[in-house]
Specification:
LRR_domain-containing, Leu-rich_rpt, Leucine-rich repeat, LRR (right-handed beta-alpha superhelix), repeat, Leucine-rich repeat,Leucine-rich repeat domain, L domain-like,Leucine-rich repeat, typical subtype, alpha/beta, leucine-rich repeat, 9 strands
């Protein structure tokens, strides 16, 4: 941000629009002056800065629906984010997160992205958010998907570029899951459950770049069942 005057102008404009965009503003610290917008703000974009932390006061933006803090240097998220019950889009890509606090109160969260962090564990609470449709956990260090995934209402799950060795059969129980991306992991062919190919709702399964030859997968009888489902979906699109 060029100067205090410029930030003040942004704040005044945001009172009227409900949108505050401070992306790529060279911020090293969270600007406390924006806290006066707690009653008004619906969209907050702090991406592409140099922030190392978010204050607890961020939990007071009760009207927020969209928050983007991607491309910073955040090592953790404040538990107070759980107070933002109206959030439907949360973007925390390209940070230094090793864990995510349980944000069980984000009941209306539809889209969440934690791409390119340092997560080792798939956060269980994400499986139980009933409105969560799109989840991106790609480019982390996650080693397994919890059995709780069967409770999720996800439509799309991206786990590309992690360290997953086996997919749980419970993925086939996901009632709405259509797209599953697990490219460039550590999957062996026997790490793909037959149920995922035969009885799941998944119509787009991306598994390239794992520890098996794709020809071996294509040769499976179960894969033919999956391809029939994939082809049927394609026909409905055109």
């Amino acid at each position: 941000m060029g100067n205090a005057s410029s930030l003040k102008n942004h704040v005044e404009t945001s009172r009227k629009t409900g949108v505050l965009n401070l992306s790529d503003s060279n911020l090293k610290h969270y600007p406390d002056t924006i806290d006066v917008l707690h009653p008004f703000l619906r969209t907050l974009d702090l991406s592409k800065n140099k922030l190392k932390m978010l204050p607890k006061s961020v939990g007071q933006f009760k009207e927020l629906k969209i928050i983007n803090v991607s491309n910073n240097a955040l090592e953790n998220l404040p538990e107070e984010l759980n107070c933002l019950s109206k959030i439907d889009t949360l973007q925390v890509n390209c940070n230094l997160l090793k864990s995510i606090p349980p944000l069980n109160n984000l009941l209306f969260l539809k889209r969440a992205s934690f791409e390119d962090n340092q997560l080792n564990v798939f956060p269980n609470f994400l499986c139980e958010l009933k409105h969560l449709e799109e989840l991106n956990l790609s480019k982390n260090n996650i080693t397994q998907i919890p059995e709780l995934i069967k409770h999720s209402r996800l439509v799309e799950l991206n786990l590309n570029q992690n360290q997953i060795r086996k997919l749980p059969a419970e993925l086939a129980e996901c009632s709405r899951l259509k797209t599953l991306r697990v490219e460039e992991n550590c999957l062996e062919l026997n790490g793909i459950p037959k149920e995922l190919l035969t009885v799941s709702k998944v119509s787009l399964l991306c598994v390239e770049g794992n520890l098996f030859d794709m020809k071996s997968l294509l040769a499976l009888e179960e894969y033919n069942i999956y391809m029939t489902r994939f082809t049927d979906v394609k026909k409905k699109m055109f």
